[in-house]
Amino acid sequence: MEKKANIAEIFYSLQGEGPECGTPYVFVRFTGCNICCRYCDTVWANIPAGSARIIMPGTETAVQIPNPITERDFLKIVSQFDTKRMCFTGGEPMLHSEFIESIMGRLDGVRLLMETNGTLAERITDRLVERIEVWSVDIKLPSVSGESVVEMNRQFLLRLKDAKQTVIKAVFSDYTPSSELQTAYEIAKEYFSFNKNITLVFQPVSGESGIHLGENYREVFDILTGCPFEARLLPQVHKVLKIL
Known about the structure:
Order of helices and strands: EEEEEEHEHEHEHHEHEEEHEH
Strand order of the largest sheet: 5-4-2-3-7-8-9-10-11-14
């Protein structure tokens, strides 16, 4: 039976987070999320939507498509985007893992990136690991997210031991204690012990008043300079550029 998914929006823009920053992507934002982070900038996507907003390439006009969207309609929509890269985001896209697994085989030649909160290890399949080129996994630091899911993050990363490329992202604020920054580093180091294809990204919270690193800049800098694998401090560039 053809699968369906509730999608918030599909649009074409530049990747604004992580090491692929500045690269054109088609973004597929799924609705629904299994956790509630304080810093979430897409809270509106956490609940099912009656329709999906489709912003067609070369235009700022949005077309509304009724939800849920079938595999056939989804593939028809994204075929209109001339892209070699697609990002599944949310909400939490792993809630729609069966839909993604079903359509990904028909996205030949498209580089797939999964942006996830890294808490749904049971939904990872060998086929997903084999097909998805980049996994971007958020480490939820309690001081920022209001959630304590670090052990769930660890279990999720264990399931990605054979991933082609993994980005471990830790969002932090000027209130984040150094112990939490160290925890993010330790989790990344644990992952590096069984998969060398890793980049650790420390991402400062971007608010209406800008980016505030506070005293944590020095702590993050010290971690980066002593890190045995690829590691960076990067803000959300799409917010700096004021684009979608």
